[in-house]
Amino acid sequence: MPSSASQFATPTVNIQSAASNDDAALSDTPLTITLLDIGQGDATLVTTPNGYTILIDGGPPGSGKHVTLPYMMDHNITALNHVMASHYDSDHIGGISEILAGRDGIADTSDDIRVTGYCWDHGNSTIKSTPSFLAYAQATTTCQRTALPGDNIYFDDDVSIEVVAVNGRSRFGILAETDSDDENAASMVLLIRYGEFRYVTTGDLPGGGGNPPYDTVDEESAVAPLIGHVDILHLGHHGSGTSSNLNFLKALSPDAVVISVGDNNSYLHPNPGTLARLHDLKIPIYQTNRGHNVGTQGSHIANGNIVIETDGNSFEIRQNPKSH
Fold first, then answer.
1. What is the pTM assigned to this prediction?
2. Could you give all domains of the chain from N- to C-terminal order, each with its CATH number?
3. Which pLDDT tens digit goes with each residue over 246-284?
4. pLDDT, position 206
5. CA distance linking residue 125 with residue 121, whole number of Å
6. Closest CA relative to residue 97, chosen from 133, 121, 70
7. What long-range pairs does 53-56 form, CB within 8 A, spacing at least 24?
């Protein structure tokens, strides 16, 4: 049903039979995936049952200091095990340097957010000179690690994050011929597993959509068979018309999609055509904000953070209001 209210929730969904409800409560210590309401961009905080923390993207400049860092402080997160940057666009990495600098905003002081593992990215930085990238590169100098297709990070007994593709390549080769400076095409595709639960996020990976001169190559169709069915798809490129092609959506057949998007954004995200494909496939849509207002009548709008919790057998999606 259409929803523009500030509250929404799914019933608990049993992964073995996604069409049925499971009345059993989730574990007291679930895997939690939080899409932070940072406006137009992406920042996702993952917390494993044993307390490992992973930040996937850091949102646009300003959001690290004013949204993500306060959220982490409220939840007593003073260090991160890993940081993963899907690609170098400013709406994905602009807040990372602010987060790592801590409350005082000054790097190399006692309140810095320490990264105990690695800061993963695609490593192709030879031509990047944007202020956001330079700040990100300086902040992650000591923890930077170039991700490779097939890399796996293991947490707890049954939690892992796999790099399915990065820099336009999977373990099996090139996804599509593209320009070397196509930042979106370099996006890291990450598959999170916990028990039977599967969640994928694709950065701004293109799927062949868009009109000249903004048309894109189709990398989604090549990567889709390597992913297969997922429970939740973090929709690529904020619901842009360049991503989420029909073949990709059918191959992944997600039980739900989540979209990180800012209200009244100038990019017209999420694209009405993308939303129409999801509606035609009867896939529930959950958005941090309404975004571009056209076509969102069938979406669930959080007006805040989106929180996903799973015990590996079932999952639920709920809204978490802003506290700042």
1. 0.91
2. 13-320 (3.60.15.10)
3. 999 999 999 999 999 988 887 788 988 999 999 999 999
4. 93
5. 10
6. 133
7. 53/77, 53/79, 53/80, 53/81, 54/80, 54/81, 54/82, 54/83, 54/84, 54/153, 54/155, 54/161, 55/80, 55/82, 55/83, 55/84, 55/96, 55/99, 56/84, 56/86, 56/190, 56/201
